[in-house]
Amino acid sequence: MVDETETTAAMYRRFATLEAPGASPLYERLASGVASDRELLALLGGLPPAKRQPNLLFAAARYVTGTPSGYDDFREALFEHREAVVAAMLARRTQTNEPARCAALYPLLASLPQPLALLEVGASAGLCLLPDRYAYTQNGHVFGAVGSPLRLNCQVEGTPPPHLTRPGPITVAWRAGIDLNPLDVTDPDDVRWLRTLVWPEQHERLHRLETAIGLARDDPPPIVRGDLNDRLAEVAAQAPPDATLVVYHTAVLYYVSDEGRAAFADQLARLGCHWIGQETEGILPQVTARLPRPHPDGPLMYVLSLDGRPVAFSAMHGGRLHWV
Ligand SMILES: C[S@@+](CC[C@H](N)C(=O)[O-])C[C@H]1O[C@@H](n2cnc3c(N)ncnc32)[C@H](O)[C@@H]1O
């Protein structure tokens, strides 16, 4: 029988050695502390398996008690406010919304016939539904909404297909999102949760998030609550017929079963729309099978695909695009 405590400890050890280093020294310390803390592992053991993950625990603890200075401080505050932290873990999800992922989406969107009808599944607060409200800099070339207060810088490597070299403007005629739990950019608690999901030392990401929320707040994109497979056809039917429908998702299908992903791909084929994916390798087998080898260097790169074909690798939180 699998020892659940050991499974959870291994997840935290993995986080401490593979995910946090270079990104968050504090989370690295917290994760390695949890991995050998029997009392805390027992507390996690009382939660459903999907609720035991490091990102959720650390965000919930910071949401309730503020950012700790180190492991002892974290542990003390956590046990002092244990019920509130557990309640936040049960009520909330890790649904980081990263507008910088739009820097990878934009050239593909600009390559399609305009105007566009954008449908994002797994939209969280909808910040990736606003690619036309941000400015972009890629290797010195500025494009998009050039006067926007949010400028997304992205280092580009490799040779893009010729029509993607200098992205032109995009026109959005319609936009909508679907999410199991839409976050509301006008709700202070949802905004505080989104801020807490950004790792403590990532000040640039936090600033980006806050600027994007400011841009979203005046005219938030509509996001329908529900499962992406259940709601897709009905929401897609609302898109204006004279706009190019693009369904896209970034960092979402990881949460969906293999059967769910296959059903989603079948639905998209039936809709006859364009499809952009930005997911970790292996999530979409049809995309993975077409990937070139060897891969470019770099940690945790996403695979960017258009209509089921890989076109680039992209960094997890934006900032780097490597055309295949
Ligand atoms: C990691 S967040 C990514 C959010 C956004 N796409 C981004 O890249 O910034 C994943 C989102 O997918 C949503 N999600 C997960 N499974 C889903 C499903 N089956 N149907 C709809 N949304 C789902 C979650 O609620 C969450 O908001």
Structure, described:
This protein is an alpha/beta fold and 324 residues long. It folds into two domains: 4-90, no CATH class; 99-323, Rossmann fold. The protein has helices at residues 4-19, 25-35, 38-45, 54-65, 71-80, 82-91, 102-110, 188-197, 203-217, 228-236, 258-271, 285-288; strands at 116-121, 135-138, 141-144, 151-157, 172-179, 223-225, 244-250, 274-280, 302-306, 309-314, 320-323. An eleven-stranded mixed β-sheet has the order 3-2-4-11-10-9-8-7-1-5-6, with helices on both faces. Strand 2 (135-138) and strand 3 (141-144) form a beta hairpin. The longest helix has 16 residues, at 4-19. It is globular. It starts with a helix and ends with a strand. The mean pLDDT is 94. Residues 93, 95-98, 101, 121-124, 128, 178-181, 227-228, 250-252, 255-256 line the site of S-adenosylmethionine.
Ordered list of secondary-structure elements with their pairings:
Elements (H helix, E strand, L loop, with lengths): L3 H16 L5 H11 L2 H8 L8 H12 L5 H10 L1 H10 L10 H9 L5 E6 L13 E4 L2 E4 L6 E7 L14 E8 L8 H10 L5 H15 L5 E3 L2 H9 L7 E7 L7 H14 L2 E7 L4 H4 L13 E5 L2 E6 L5 E4 L1
Parallel strand pairs: 1-5, 1-7, 2-4, 4-11, 5-6, 7-8
Antiparallel strand pairs: 2-3, 8-9, 9-10, 10-11
Helix pairs in contact: 1-2, 1-3, 4-6, 4-8, 10-11
Bound molecules: S-adenosylmethionine.
